[in-house]
Amino acid sequence: MKLYEVSMDVSVVRDDGSAYALLVPKIEANNVKLKLKSQNLLSEHLKIVKPESTEPSQDDLLIRTNLTYANELEDLRQFGYPVVIDRHRGSRNHDKDKLRDSIRQSFECLPRGFVTSIEVQFSDLVLTLNSSYCVYRPLLLLSTSAVANPTWRTFLSALSADKCAQAHFFARLAKCFDVTHVAIDGPIAASFPGVGNEIASQSVENFIRLPTNLRPLHGDFGPDLAPFPEHIPDSSDYDKAFWVSTKQNGITQTWAPRYTMFSAGNVTEKARLIQLESVHSAIVHGIRTGGGCTAVDLFAGIGYFAFSYAKAGFSHVLCWDLNPWSVEGMRRGSVANKWQYSILSDRCAETSSGGGLETLPYGGTYDTSKMSPTLLIFNESNEKAIDRIASLENRLPPIRHVNCGMLPTSSAAWKTALRALNRRLGGYLHLHETVLQKDLDAKVKKIVKQTTELAQRVLHTESTTFDTRLEHVEMVKTVGPKLLHIVVDIAVLPN
To answer: Among 35, 165, 265, 368, who pairs with 114 as Cys (CB 3.0-4.6 Å)?
Structure first.
């Protein structure tokens, strides 16, 4: 088994314009580049770059290729380096001419007095510009690295001190990209300063992945609210917030950038889930038996992977997330994708049909020609998942897949994930982890060992035992120097 195998359907890869790249140690990059060029596999117009991360590695480089199709992957595997998706040609735009021309137009709109008062010239800005940005209509999102150098920091500081100049510059930049809002993205902080009298001097763990480092530059991004759970948002807050959407793999996802993170780098993993053979076999089994099948996402966010299960054809998807803003994003995304949904929490219960939970189509025969997927969204800790599932046991199709998409580790949820699987049919776990590249093999072996031991304690009975085995290891993206985001697929099937 190749740990770095990337199995993508051609149509899915082309959906976001991404292509393949090799992750190569810096010392070997030139030799690999020459070999790629000799075989006409090298992208001639894109430079070799460092992997995007909060702390770029000095040792690893991304060498971009001209390959975009899954059936071309064998041409890259011969090199023996990790094959990754090059999102520089996908969700993250690197059209330097477009950004440079837009910066020029915006600079020309600045009041003359402001331009003469600062020690920055347009030529300086262009020379030091990194072209990384995303457009999520109607938002232009610049990456931190795009404006991280001293020249840009000086310029942005001067703009922030002159509100008139700032308004002129970013209004023109927004017009150039046909958007209404502009912001600079930033890494998700592990913690943020406490609010309220009791914890004002303490740091609070950012367990809901609040984008505290987002820097709005133009447009109203919504009110400045205390983070959850200090403030529990209501419909009025949602109405005042700024929302954006994007479509990946044919799926619309919606979020409020000020209150919810969005990870563009997960696009390949979302696509992989849709194409997985084990996903297809569970769906086919559910159709043949007439009962449907269920997937569970224990860290659902705005629906990153939950929506992939719904798109693939699961009749029911159970989602857990603590952040009310993520849940509202899931609700809006469900509406945009024309999927039925139900939201449950200690505070409220809501269904897309407007009725109570008894109106949801559980049990009986699942007619895929007449019914969209149903998402059950629980705005609560996934520690309550097993009790919730038990209460729905007689109305819920078999649970065949469980996703644990929490970084840096999802290990706290593995026991819950195993207990959620259908005892008669078994199923599959998708466990997200971060790991140093040098420790990958050892980490994977440890995960398999731990899940096997957990399964023996949680699932095995005198009459039934389960076979726990490694199905696949997927490298999703780099998240730091030599630090990988991986997904470990574990099959848990009855003997």
So the answer is: 165
Q: Which amino acid is at 187?
A: P
Query: 3-class SS at 42?
Result: strand
Copy the structure tokens of residue 449: 């060992």
Tokens of 360: 């949801």
Nearest to 15 by CA among 243, 252, 257, 179: 252
Rounded distance, CA 406 to CA 363, Å?
30
Tokens of 151: 């020249």
pLDDT in tens, 229-275: 778 899 999 999 999 998 888 899 999 999 988 887 788 899 999 99
DSSP code at position 304: T
- Six-digit token string for 49: 């770059």
Model confidence, pTM? 0.76
Q: What are phi and psi of 394, to 5 degrees?
A: -80, -10
Q: 24 CB contacts (<8 Å, ≥6 apart)?
A: 32, 60, 61, 62, 63, 81
Residue with tokens 């945009």: 336
Instruction: Give 382-414 pLDDT, tens digit per residue.
Output: 999 999 999 887 889 999 999 999 999 999 999
Cα–Cα distance for residue pair 473/467, rounded to 1 Å: 18
SS3 for 148-205, per residue? CCHHHHHHHHHHHHCHHHHHHHHHHHHHHCCCCEEEECCCCCCEEECCCCCCCCCEEE
Question: Which residues make Cβ contacts (< 8 Å) with residue 437, sequence separation at least 6?
Answer: 60, 82, 482, 483, 484
